[in-house]
From TrEMBL:
Pfam families: LssY_C (PF14067), VTT_dom (PF09335). Belongs to the DedA family. GO terms for cellular component: plasma membrane. Residues 25-144 form the VTT domain. It comes from the Bacteria. Keywords: Cell membrane, Membrane, Transmembrane, Transmembrane helix. The keyword Transmembrane helix applies. Its main location: membrane. Residues 248-391 form the LssY-like C-terminal domain. This is Uncharacterized protein. PANTHER family: INNER MEMBRANE PROTEIN DEDA-RELATED, INNER MEMBRANE PROTEIN YABI. The chain crosses the membrane at residues 41-64, 124-147, 167-186, 198-216.
Length: 441
């Protein structure tokens, strides 16, 4: 299920326990993410984190025991804080070390101090093990409780909270926060309080992202409702505008079904020849946070689950690499009677902005469509028609504006593309609709 890799987890958690460099490898968001995955397993990764934290704590202890004065000088600990810590250590000893490991600003310092102030190695092996288990568990619990809370509140975007004026303001804002936070961390000796505030803010932001990613990937399997559409459902497009609505992944607004491909047995080859790029999907793939981030960085973010009458699709493409803006196409195969041409229903639209929506009571990032959605439909239908000799297309369906909770505008019609020698959409439904309805029942 995970692609973090046990060796990578061990290494990261070990480094996180070492003085000075620990601030550059914050593993707390990883623990939070793993907590969101508990219902699907993931205990091996959590145990690996606990083991890595315990091993790293031994490294800090022996650094303090062999070079305590130099290490403490390098850590720039305040004299007053050192005096209070030493008083607590002398009075409480083992409980001090355990409790200090639960508090990230002083966890690494307490491990070095235990070595520098002469705690017995055998005692430290035991108390650091208990501290490592509790330290990791507290963040795992945060992730688990947060994910269960999101599930209880519901993950359907309900109302716009904030629409970003430009598609990249989110990335720019996060980059500036990281830049300022890193600068404060590097100057930690002169700005102790701003450092703590910046580091706490960055950790909180990273854990918020971890919870959202964990909730998202934790529902990937729940969205596995990939199946062909009944022909009777497809033929309803002649009388009403079908709308595909968001599934268990809250990344996408509802959008109309506005395309039909008739007689194109291999739409993947056709779209590839036209330069379209295939997306992985939450409905068809088991994706974890690393894969989501990697694909998004490569400009091919996974396609969220949108459902047509409760049925998802794993057939998704985008016109070019990029995250926002981009033109995206979804296709649902239709179950056809024997001897009938192949039929695919599709939804094409342009993702134009990133929106912060309310998921229950929690803000989550989501994609918004370009409002004038018919222009994308007509443009892509024309391009596919030109690419196939003898193909033609025309608009079918009701001439009525779509009224939904989404913010797109559409005439409600469907562009039907026919391969050479195939019947029209209306004829297929007239001849096969009732038969298909009987076989599907």
């Amino acid at each position: 299920m995970m692609s973090w890799g046990i060796p990578a987890l061990l290494l990261a958690t070990m480094i996180n326990q070492l003085p000075v460099i620990s601030v550059f490898v914050p593993t707390e968001p990883v623990y939070v993410y793993l907590g969101t995955q508990i219902p699907d397993g993931g205990w091996t990764s959590i145990l690996a984190c606990m083991l890595g934290a315990w091993i790293g704590a031994q490294g800090s202890f022996w650094l303090g025991r062999t070079a305590g004065a130099r290490v403490l000088a390098r850590m720039n600990a305040a004299p007053a804080a050192m005096h209070r810590a030493q008083s607590l250590f002398e009075r409480r000893g083992a409980p001090f070390v355990v409790i200090a490991q639960l508090i990230w600003p002083i966890a690494t310092l307490s491990q070095v101090l235990a070595g520098a102030w002469g705690m017995r190695p055998r005692t430290y092996v035991v108390v650091s093990g208990l501290g490592a288990v509790l330290a990791v568990s507290q963040y795992v619990a945060i992730g688990y409780v947060s994910a269960r809370g999101l599930a209880a509140l519901g993950l359907q975007p309900e109302e716009p909270l904030l629409v970003w004026l430009g598609p990249y303001w989110v990335s720019i804002g996060l980059a500036l926060m990281l830049l300022v936070g890193t600068a404060l961390i590097l100057r930690r000796a002169r700005h102790a309080l701003p450092l703590r505030v910046a580091y706490a803010g960055l950790l909180a932001l990273a854990m918020f992202v971890a919870v959202n990613l964990g909730s998202l990937t934790g529902r990937a399997q729940a969205a596995n409702r990939v199946a062909p559409l009944p022909l009777s459902l497809a033929c309803r497009a002649l009388d009403e505008t079908l709308v595909a609505r968001t599934g268990d992944t809250p990344l996408h607004a509802a959008q109309p079904v506005n395309l039909a491909l008739i007689g194109f047995d291999d739409p993947a080859t056709l779209l590839r020849a036209l330069g379209w790029l295939r997306n992985r999907t939450y409905a068809g793939d088991d994706l974890d946070a690393v894969e989501v981030l990697k694909l998004t960085f490569e400009g091919l973010p996974p396609a969220s689950s949108i459902l047509l009458d409760g049925i998802a699709t794993d057939m998704a493409w985008q016109k070019a690499r990029g995250t926002v803006p981009r033109t995206q196409l979804r296709l649902w195969p239709v179950a056809m009677p024997d001897g009938a041409p192949s039929l695919y229903l599709g939804s094409v639209g342009r993702i134009d902005a990133v929106t912060l929506r309310l998921s229950g009571r929690v803000p989550v990032l989501a994609y918004d469509l370009f409002p004038l959605i018919d222009s994308a439909r007509n443009r892509e239908a024309e391009a596919i028609g030109r690419a196939v000799t003898g193909a033609r297309w025309h608009l079918v369906g009701p001439r009525a504006p779509v009224e939904t909770e989404s913010q797109f505008e559409s005439d409600g019609r469907l562009a039907a593309l026919q391969a050479p020698g195939t019947p029209g959409f209306e004829r297929i439904c007239a001849q096969g609709g009732p038969q298909a309805a009987g076989t599907q029942g």
